[in-house]
């Protein structure tokens, strides 16, 4: 990725983060000024607003510093880093599947069948997405 | 080989210094693209730079 393309990507990310923060603020307003006074929506909105604002600020300062853009681009596109990230995703997927299996077993013993079913479905959906993505990538790459 | 530091080599090849260190230690195998870039940087061939070992 060229410097220009990377700078454009960074600017796009700033706007995405701003959008996230705005969404968070909307949720906070919604949680505070509607009749429901939903605490979960308030917490979720606050998290989004804070994370979005922090991310936007961090990225915006980054876009103002040519030297930092250059080093960030290298770190992000470094092939070893990409390989490590890919490996980490693989490990995370397997760990998630194993932990889910344990959770399903424990929840079934505790007679919490609904929760166990929800976890089982999410593992199945994830596995299905992985398989479909693998097949598609196999044809494309 | 050219009397340069790992940091200078990393900057020239647009990779991190950690990648250069891992390559030197044999902990990471470079992609074909990086291998070519390294060879071109040092004005040599891939065979001169890397040794292929059958597993």
Which overall shape of chain A is indicated by the principal axes computed on the Cα atoms? flat
**CA(first)-CA(last) distance of chain B:** 28 Å
Shape of chain B: globular
Structural class of chain B: mainly alpha
Q: How large a portion of the residues of chain A is in β-strands, by DSSP E? A: under 5%
Binned, the helix content of chain B reads 55-70%
Biggest interface pair, residues each?
A-B, 9 and 13 residues
The helix/strand order of chain B is HHHH
The assembly state of the depicted protein chains is heterodimer
Class by helix and strand content of chain A?
A: mainly alpha
Query: How large is the share of residues in beta strands of chain B?
Result: under 5%
| Strand and helix order of chain A | HHHHH
Q: What is the radius of gyration of chain A? A: 21 Å
Query: So how many helices of chain A?
Result: 5
Distance between the termini of chain A: 19 Å
What portion of residues of chain A is helical?
Answer: over 70%
Question: What profile does the largest beta sheet of chain A have?
Answer: none
Summarize the structure.
The complex is a heterodimer of chains A (141) and B (55). Chain A is 90% helix and 0% strand.
List the helices and strands and how they pair.
The complex is a heterodimer of chains A (141) and B (55).
Chain A: H1 3-33, H2 39-63, H3 66-77, H4 79-109, H5 113-140
Chain B: H1 6-13, H2 17-25, H3 32-42, H4 46-49
How would you describe the overall organization of this protein?
- The complex is a heterodimer of chains A (141) and B (55).
- Chain A has 141 residues and is mainly alpha-helical.
- Chain A is built from five helices and no strands.
- In chain A, helix 1 runs antiparallel to helix 2 (39-63) and helix 4 (79-109) runs antiparallel to helix 5.
- Chain B is built from four helices and no strands.
- Chain B has helices at residues 6-13, 17-25, 32-42, 46-49.
- The radius of gyration of chain B is 11 Å and the shape is globular.
- The termini of chain B are far apart.
- The A-B interface holds A 73-75, 77-81, 83 and B 10-11, 14-16, 18-19, 22, 28, 30-31, 33-34.
């Amino acid at each position: 990725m060229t410097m220009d393309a990377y700078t454009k990507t960074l600017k796009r990310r700033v706007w995405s983060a701003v959008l996230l923060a705005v969404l968070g603020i909307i949720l906070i307003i919604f949680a505070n000024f509607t009749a429901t006074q939903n605490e979960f929506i308030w917490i979720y909105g606050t998290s989004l607003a804070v994370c979005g604002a922090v991310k936007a600020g961090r990225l915006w300062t980054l876009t103002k510093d040519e030297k930092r853009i250059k080093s960030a681009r290298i770190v992000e596109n470094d092939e070893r880093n990409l390989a490590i990230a890919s490996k980490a995703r693989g490990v995370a997927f397997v760990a998630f599947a194993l932990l889910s299996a344990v959770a399903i077993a424990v929840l079934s013993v505790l007679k919490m069948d609904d929760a166990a079913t929800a976890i089982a479905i999410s593992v199945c959906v994830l596995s299905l997405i992985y398989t479909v993505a693998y097949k598609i990538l196999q044809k494309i790459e | 080989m050219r009397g340069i530091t790992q940091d200078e080599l990393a900057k020239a090849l647009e990779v991190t210094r950690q990648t250069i260190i891992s390559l030197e230690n044999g902990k990471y195998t470079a992609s074909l693209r990086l291998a070519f870039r390294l060879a071109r940087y040092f004005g040599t061939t891939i065979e001169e730079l890397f040794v292929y070992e059958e597993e």
